[in-house]
Structure formats: structure tokens, C-alpha cells
Design a protein that fits this description.
Low-confidence stretches: none
CATH class of the largest domain: Alpha Beta
Strand order of the largest sheet: 1-3-2-4-7
Strand content: 15-25%
Number of strands: 7
Number of helices: 6
Order of helices and strands: HEHEEEEEHEHHH
CATH architecture of the largest domain: 3-Layer(aba) Sandwich
Largest sheet: 5 strands, mixed
Distance between the termini: 65 Å
Radius of gyration: 25 Å
CATH superfamily of the largest domain: Vaccinia Virus protein VP39
Helix content: 25-40%
Mean pLDDT: 91
Length: about 230
């Protein structure tokens, strides 16, 4: 497991030009994200797994050869799962992040699981979000079902894509491209009935607003102020 510093610049590429870790391509000098990825892949055991936290930009960047490195990683069938996470999970930064699961000897060869968990979790205070045990169990069970080959896609939440399908998306790994948008339950209330209900509710809100306006004017006048 690893949570490397995001988008680290000046990481010393000039001193590591011929490093054997860059078998999938030389990472750019200005961003170490793909250097971290290649470093960890290089050290993977034959059936090893990585759980890696990265900034979202690594999913789609094409800068300075990063897209080509990502293509080679995908074509090597190393990406087992990608999970898009919501904002405010960290105490140091508020940006959303992505979990990469990189595996040698995947149980589902030629396939990758995409999960969009951006709407999951709950706010524990004004600045910080956390996952409940139910949230964690749902994610874990989804991954387990994928590995067993029993997972069914859930619109807006999870989808399984083949390497060919990822190639058709220009090797971009953003989960939203694969899971789509959650289907909302159809509203079967007739239009005329809905409009009658909504206008009645709105009329009541307007009446309450006028009552509050008069009450505020009265209270202000009582202390010597008058709204012009």
C-alpha cells in the first residue's frame, strides 16, 4: 500500500535516466506520479498487489509520455481496479483522489473494475468526510464479486471494462467514463397534478414570506427604525 506525495516536481529524473525501473517508459521530470507507479510495479512479486492513492490527474494525463506509460501498464493487464473517491477524506488536502489496484496475475484477466464512490461517505464535521462500515463493506464486496466473476454492473456506481473497451476510451481510466450516470426512479406523478401541488406549495411560501416581512417591519419600527 502506498500514498505517495501527489504531483511531486523536481524528483531527480536527471539523475535516473537509465534506471531499470522505467521499463514502461521514462517518467516526466516535472511530475513523479508515474515514477511512483513504475517504481512499485518494478518491485511487485509475481502475484503481488499494490493499493495506491493518486491524484485524479494521473487517470487521464497525456503530458510528457505519461499517457504512453499508462497505455503500456493497461496493455500489460496490470490494472485490476480503479476507485474514484470523494473530496475531503484527508485532513491535509480537500481534493478528491483515486485508488489504483495494480496486480500481477489478476483473477479476471483482460478486465478492470471501475467504481465511482464520489457520492459515498458522510461528513463528520464541516471539513472532513468519512466512510461508514457499510460503505467499506459495499466497496469490498463489489471488488470480491468482480474477482469471482459474479459482479453485475450498477449504473453510476460500478462497471467492468475489457482492455479493448479501455483502449476505445484512449486508455483513460476515469471511472465515470465506464460506470455512466445513475438512473433515477421515474416520477409517475401526472404533470398537471404536480404543477397544481407545486404552485399551491409556492403560494403558501409566498404568504409566509409576506407574514415574515410584515413582522420584521413591525419589530424594526418598534425600536425606531423604518424600512423605506
Amino acid at each position: 500500500m502506498a500514498n505517495p506525495p501527489f504531483n511531486l516536481s523536481n524528483w531527480g529524473q536527471d539523475k535516473l535516466q537509465n534506471d531499470p525501473r522505467w521499463g514502461l517508459g521514462l517518467p516526466p521530470a516535472g511530475n513523479a506520479n508515474y515514477a511512483w507507479i513504475e517504481h512499485m510495479i518494478y518491485h511487485l512479486a509475481p502475484n503481488g498487489k499494490i493499493g495506491l492513492v493518486l491524484a485524479n490527474g494521473a487517470l487521464s494525463t497525456q503530458t510528457s509520455g505519461e499517457g504512453e506509460i499508462r497505455r503500456k501498464i493497461i496493455e500489460a493487464d496490470l490494472i485490476e481496479g480503479i476507485v474514484a473517491m470523494p473530496t475531503q477524506l484527508f485532513y491535509s488536502v480537500t481534493i478528491p483522489v483515486t485508488l489504483w489496484f495494480i496486480t500481477r496475475g489478476k483473477k479476471q484477466t483482460g478486465k478492470t473494475l471501475f467504481i465511482d464512490a464520489c457520492s459515498m461517505g458522510h461528513m463528520v464535521d464541516r471539513k472532513h468526510r468519512d466512510f461508514s462500515e457499510e460503505d467499506i463493506t459495499r466497496l469490498a464486496d463489489t471488488f470480491t464479486a468482480f474477482q469471482k466473476g459474479t459482479l453485475e454492473d450498477v449504473k453510476g456506481f460500478c462497471a467492468v471494462a475489457t482492455t479493448k473497451q479501455i483502449a476505445d476510451q484512449d486508455y483513460i481510466l476515469t471511472p465515470g467514463r465506464y460506470v455512466g450516470i445513475e438512473e433515477k426512479a421515474e416520477d409517475d406523478e401526472p404533470f398537471d397534478d404536480k404543477m397544481t401541488r407545486l404552485t399551491t406549495e409556492l403560494g403558501g411560501m409566498f404568504a409566509k414570506s409576506h407574514e415574515l416581512e410584515e413582522e420584521i417591519k413591525k419589530n424594526l419600527a418598534g425600536i425606531g427604525f423604518k424600512i423605506k
